[in-house]
Amino acid sequence: MDDTHLIELLDTLAEAELTLALAESLTGGALCARLVDVPKASRVLRGGVCTYATPLKATLLGVDSTLLAEKGPVDAEVARQMAQGARRLMGAKLALSTTGVAGPGPAEGHEAGTVHIALAWSKGVVHRELHLTGDRAHIRSGTVNAALELLKETLESGGILDSH
User: Fold this and answer.
1) Is the pLDDT of residue 3 over 80?
2) pLDDT the model gives residue 69
3) Which domain holds residue 40?
């Protein structure tokens, strides 16, 4: 997402008085950095937490430790719980999460490029599974873009604004 579209997205959130929190794993703070690259992100962005180590997903975000033990961090429900946990932790109306395998090779039984992103708000959580290709940097940047697109598409669908 280019700066112009990102500014428009942040303007939409600000006009609706929606705040945003982030829970990142494979993106390692890149999603948060991408948002603060543009002016006035502080109107919307509450903050982000990088839970790169699997145990931190449980201790900081409240992801079910049994789920993590059984499925590992690369899982749809883990992404959902990460987003819900970030929303609670930071008192935000919305939260995005990223978890997956950036590569270069497989990890946790998943191929590089297997990614789960989620967006949580008061009335629900949406999830998207991605299968990205390319090197580590491309997978990480693709994940950032996909998370922002998920936010944009969900806002445009009316589900968030209708429940706000």
Assistant:
1) yes
2) 97
3) 3-157
pLDDT band at residue 160, thresholds of 50, 70 and 90? confident
DSSP H/E element including 147? helix 136-157
Q: What is the pTM of this model?
A: 0.97
> Which residues neighbour 129 within 8 Å (Cβ) at sequence distance 6 or greater?
76, 114, 115, 116
Give which of 62, 65, 37 is closest to 49, Cα–Cα.
62
Query: What distance in Å separates the CA atoms of residue 99 and residue 116, rounded to the nearest whole number?
Result: 5
Rounded Cα distance between 161 and 15, Å, is 11
Return the structure tokens found at 150. Answer: 């998920």
**Is 79 contained in some domain?**
yes
In a domain, 162, yes or no: no
End-to-end CA distance of the chain: 25
Q: Is residue 72 part of a domain?
A: yes
**Which stretches does DSSP call E strand in 4-113?**
20-24, 45-50, 94-100
Does any domain span residue 164?
A: no
Please report which confidence band the pLDDT of residue 164 belongs to, taking 50, 70 and 90 as the band edges: low
